[in-house]
Amino acid sequence: MSSRIEQLIDELEEYIESCKPKFMSNSEIIVNKDEIDELLRELRMKTPDEIKRYQKIISNKEAILNDARAKAEALINETNIKTNELISEHEIMQQAYAQANEVVTMASKRAQDIVDKATMEANELRMQAARYTEEQLAGLESIVLSSIQAASGNYESLLASLNQYKEVIQSNRQALQPVDDLEDVSMDGMRDSDGIDII
Fold first, then answer.
1. Of 74, 173, 181, 185, which has the fewest Cβ atoms less than 10 A away?
2. DSSP letter for each residue of 35-60
3. Residue 193 CB neighbours (<10 A)
4. What is the CA radius of gyration of the chain?
5. CA angle 9, 15, 21 (to 5 degrees)
6. Contact criterion met (CB below 8 Å) for 28 and 22
7. pLDDT for position 76
8. Closest CA relative to residue 121, chosen from 133, 113, 111, 132
9. What pLDDT, on a 0 to 100 scale, did the predictor assign at position 198?
10. What is the per-residue pLDDT for 190?
């Protein structure tokens, strides 16, 4: 906001600009003495008040500066405190992140170790199971083969015994029948023999 002195000076300038120039002169003007006196009188009256106000401001300069310095220092201190708090929080967060990363790394390593161990154990169990199965199958194959060989031998022995019994039976039948019926017996024997599988 401009002071009253500045306003009066502006009014003086405007008044001078509005005055008519003196006849045949570029630098002289015709002024109204009463108007000029009034403006100058007010200017003289206001000047001491303005000077006093400026002197008061100057005298209070130190107080104003001290107050400004105190406010600035308080603001700086508050800023420093907040900065230190933020730095502390940041350091705490960094430590927390570091610890979290360490925990994640350890957990990942532990999990990988468990997976690797489980994989090795599974592979070992699979190999043992394959060996056991192979051994059992080999033993079963041996048993089946022995059984087949034994059954084959017993079957051949059984057939041989049955053939012997058949021959004995045929011989006994022939002995029991008359001589005339030998041809019929022979034919009956052939029919009987057709009903028995002989190998």
1. 74
2. HHHHHHHHHHHHHHHHHHHHHHHHHT
3. 13
4. 69
5. 130
6. yes
7. 93
8. 113
9. 45
10. 53
Please state whether 182 falls in left (phi above 0), alpha (psi between -120 and 50) or beta: alpha
What confidence tens digit (pLDDT) does each residue in 54-97 have?
777 777 777 777 888 889 899 899 999 989 888 888 888 888 88
Q: Are 9 and 40 in contact (CB under 8 A)?
A: no
pLDDT beneath 50, residues of the chain = 1, 193, 196-199
CB 5 within 8 A of CB 43: yes
Alpha-carbon dihedral 152, 158, 160, 163, rounded to 10 degrees: -140
Two tokens at 14?
């405007």
